[in-house]
Design goal:
With 299 residues, this protein is mostly helical. It has 2 domains: 141 residues, no CATH class; 147 residues, no CATH class. Helix content is 77%, strand content 4%. It has 14 helices and 3 strands. Strands 1-2-3 form a 3-stranded antiparallel beta sheet, with helices on one face. About 3% of the residues have low confidence.
Length: 299
């Protein structure tokens, strides 16, 4: 009996020694995590500071935990594929490193921040393979939307949208019987004037609704065509609801200037986002019904 026990114990020890040790894997993870922390700690901290201090970028605080939660929800789908390390992922990793280097040399924050997302995708491809990367495509895409737009692009689009909002808001006010005319981005009323500032250009609601379109496309729609259509619709929808907001401000200012400059001006921003998100959700349901017929028939 003792001989049998010793034999069984020896076989178990041999099988344990034959298994690949987890220590090299943990060591690789620790080394990669340390290198990422050294490179991106200051970049990510600066981006988090922008999320906290800039109201237009505050949705960025929700996106990383949301992406992690979605990846955790679909972990079974990801882990159903065996890990297949692929050296082709090193090309994407090298591209991310090049983006970071160029951003550092040019002091371009967008490149440095976006390179972090590209690096994560490259590391997943390298260590886990392309199949697992495909299952994590949406969380990675959601992380990409957390990076604020470059300041040059933001400033170049703000002025045209300011003029568009002020022009159409003036036309709407005139059609409703209000005496108004436009002087640049200023709406001249009978008793006062309204300046359509950069914050009222619609870019703030545009960035938030674009993120919302990505999320709703994933949750409501089932095909790539309906998801990309919803993404495209987010742009005119954000511009339209912002024009409605500016028009409403002009109408209220013509009636009572204090109302337009007080609670309504602060509350209208939230109201516009809620209305825009509701319209976006309705558009997602319609696109799902029209462009996902086979999925609807199956359910």
């Amino acid at each position: 009996m003792a001989t049998g026990f010793a034999t069984k114990l020896g076989e178990e020890c041999k099988s344990a020694l034959a298994r690949p040790s987890t220590y090299p894997v943990l060591l690789k993870i620790a080394v990669v995590a340390a290198l990422i922390s050294i490179l991106f700690a200051a970049v990510l901290a600066d981006m988090a500071h922008d999320w906290w201090t800039e109201p237009a970028l505050s949705q960025g605080m929700l996106l990383p935990p949301l992406a992690v939660y979605i990846a955790w929800m679909y972990r079974r789908s990801t882990l159903s594929y065996p890990a297949a390390p692929d050296n082709r992922g090193l090309l994407l990793t090298a591209c991310a490193c090049l983006m970071f280097l160029l951003g550092r040399l040019a002091s371009e924050f967008f490149l440095m921040r976006f390179s972090f997302v590209v690096l994560l995708a490259g590391l997943i491809w390298t260590f886990w393979g392309i199949r697992r990367l495909r299952t994590l495509a949406f969380p990675v895409l959601l992380l990409a939307t957390m990076v604020p737009l470059p300041a040059l692009l933001y400033n170049s689009q703000a002025a045209p949208l300011q003029l568009l909002a002020s022009d159409l808001a003036t036309r709407i006010a005139q059609s409703l019987g209000v005496s108004a005319f436009r002087d640049g981005n200023v709406i001249q009323l009978a008793g006062t004037s309204l300046g359509v500032e950069e914050a009222c250009s619609g870019l703030n609601s545009l960035s938030a609704l674009i993120v919302g379109s990505v999320l709703l496309g994933f949750l409501v729609c089932s095909r790539f065509l309906s998801r990309i259509t919803l993404f495209v619709l987010a742009v005119p929808l954000a511009i339209a609801v912002n024009i409605v907001r500016v028009s409403g401000t002009a109408l209220i200012a013509d009636y009572n200037q204090e109302f337009a400059e007080g609670f309504y001006h602060s509350f209208s921003g939230w109201l516009v986002f809620v209305a825009g998100f509701g319209a976006l959700y309705l558009a997602a349901r319609i696109l799902h019904a029209l462009l996902d017929p086979k999925v609807n028939a199956a359910t």
